[in-house]
Every structure is written in C-alpha cells, then in structure tokens.
Amino acid sequence: MLSRFFPIFASTMKYINITNALRRWSLCSVCLATVTTALLAGCASQRGCYVGVQGGGMVYYEERGKGEPLILLHGHSLDRRMWDTQWRDFSARYRTIRLDFRGYGLSSAMREDLHTTHADDVVALMDSLKIERAHVVGLSMGAFVAGDMLAMYPDRLLSCVLCSGGIRNSKGPSEPMDSAENAKREQEIAALRLRGVEVMKREWTEQLVSGGGSRRETMRKPLRRMISQWTAWQPLHKEPRLFYGKEAWAELRRKAPVSVPLLILRGETEGKTSHARELDYVKDGEQITLPDCGHMMNMEQPQRFNAIVLSFLSKHSKQ
C-alpha cells in the first residue's frame, strides 16, 4: 500500500533527505504534501505531514478521507503501515488518520529523558489538526495508548476500540525508574546486545505469526518488512514511562461510568478471551472474540475485522 500511494517515498533518497531536513529544522507543523508537491503528484487523496510535540519531537501522520475523525494506533515494533488493509475501507467513510508513535516509523527518535506519554502525543496531534473528538482504534501497544485516552481524555473520544490489549497494569509517568529497575534494564540491554538484535527481530516476527490462526502466513511478509526496518530503540534503551498504566486505571475508576462507547476485540488463538475489565467502567461496551484469529487480527483477517469495526463505528457516528 505504501508503494501505491508514495512510490517515490519508498524508492528514492529524496524523501529521506527531506524527512531528515524537516527533523533538523524542528518545525512545529510541517506538511510534506505542501513541501514535496512535485514528488506527490498523483497522490492528492492522501497527505503525509509532521506535527511538533512536547520535547522538540515530531510525529509523522497520514490523513485520508472525509467525515468524522478516526485515528488508528499501531503496535510495538510496527508502524502506521500495519493499517494498510484498513486504510481504503475506513477512509471511504471517515477522515482517517494513522500515525507513527515517537521512536517508530518516520517519527522522530525517542529519548530516555523524555517526560511525556504516547497518549499525550496523540492529543497534541488532535489539537494541531483542530480535532475536538475522534473515534480511536488501537491494537496491542496502540490499545495501551487508546486505553490511556479512554481514562485520561474521555472528552476527546467519540468511541474507543481496544484490540488485543487495553490499559496496562504498570507504573505510570509519576513513578520514575528506581535503582533496582535501572539495574535490571541494564542487564536486559546487555543480554540483548549479546544475543543480537537481528535474532530478536526474527524470533519476535515468528512469535507474532505463529500465534495466529489458519490465515497467519498472509501477514508474515508485511510484519517482517516493518520489524526489519524498526530501529529497536526501545529494547536497547531505558525507555521512559510512555503509558499511564496504573494511573489510568485509577482515573477510569474515579470517572466511572465513562460515557465513551467501547468495543473490545480479542483473537481466539491468542488465548486472552476473558472479560475485559475496562467494560466495568463504561456505560456502553461490548466484547467480541474473532474465531481462528490471533494477536494481529487486523492483518490476519482484515475483511472480518473491518466489518466489525465499521459496524461499531456506524452505531456511534453522528454523520
């Protein structure tokens, strides 16, 4: 899909040079569709842009379609391209936005001294695009972020879909890493360097694929491509607390019942089909298990996934 809409991005160094220059300039909000009009001939239906976020970072996003805003949040080690099989169907009905979290894809690098969260970056993106409220769909790590938004920023959501994940039960940004955690991370990083990053990437890819159902091999190639291009910054550094985690759970309980419509999606072969706790704190929620499907459900069974999500969104759309 990337090569279809951004052929020069994928095949020439011109785009890479422009991207690096934009990062060095640290512009607050730079639209690549404007800066590289000549390079993007024939791609008028989609634009790719950068938005400045806290700490001097830049988040890359792509936007397509019209209607109510719909934001797609990707998983760990992946990037916005994991939504390729949703991009056309979703953007036909909604103003669809997919982004690369900081430290992934085309967004700026992460830093160990950063004091923010991925959820805060998504809200900053919404503010920049003048989006008051949006439907949010997150998978895996993206579901951690969407869950944080459900708890911390419910007034910014039209609806929320948590796929293969939800609010983490981990320490939030208000609890900095202590000496014991610091020492443990140093040991883990040293062990990974000894083992080899490429070995880790191959094993991680295999884990994602093997956990799927009968259609799991259809996602091997795109997963391998994204993971091979991932910098692996996160497992090689002392990553800051980028999720609200336990703080989000406390906030969700305090605000309950939250009025944001919530859909929980689980894959049968993932083995995590028990009742999702988030449903206990919302007024309107439902949980669906996709049979013969694993963790990466949107890539493994895109047609079924798209139908379920679009049906849910249509029930909670005003357009």
Please outline the major beta sheet: 9 strands, mixed
The N- to C-terminal Cα distance equals: 27 Å
Rg over CA atoms, rounded to whole Å, is 19 Å
- In helices, the fraction of residues equals 25-40%
- Secondary structure tally, helices: 13
Low-confidence runs (pLDDT<50, min 5 residues)? 1-44
What portion of the residues fall into strands of 2 or more residues? 15-25%
Overall residue-averaged pLDDT value: 89
The general outline is: globular
- In spatial order, strands of the major sheet run 1-2-3-5-4-6-7-8-9
What secondary-structure arrangement, pairings included, does this model have?
Blueprint: H1 2-5, H2 7-11, H3 13-25, E1 29-31, H4 32-35, E2 46-53, E3 57-64, E4 69-73, H5 84-91, E5 95-99, H6 118-128, E6 134-139, H7 141-152, E7 157-163, H8 179-195, H9 197-210, H10 220-229, H11 246-255, E8 262-267, E9 285-290, H12 297-300, H13 302-315
Parallel strand pairs: 4-5, 4-6, 6-7, 7-8, 8-9
Antiparallel strand pairs: 1-2, 2-3, 3-5
Helix pairs in contact: 5-13, 7-11, 9-10
Commentary on this structure:
The chain is an alpha/beta fold and 319 residues long. The chain contains 13 helices and 9 strands. It has helices spanning 2-5, 7-11, 13-25, 32-35, 84-91, 118-128, 141-152, 179-195, 197-210, 220-229, 246-255, 297-300, 302-315, and strands at 29-31, 46-53, 57-64, 69-73, 95-99, 134-139, 157-163, 262-267, 285-290. A 9-stranded mixed β-sheet has the order 1-2-3-5-4-6-7-8-9, sandwiched between helices. Helix 7 (141-152) crosses helix 11 (246-255) and helix 9 (197-210) runs antiparallel to helix 10. The chain is globular and about 50 Å long. The model is unreliable at 1-44 (pLDDT under 50).
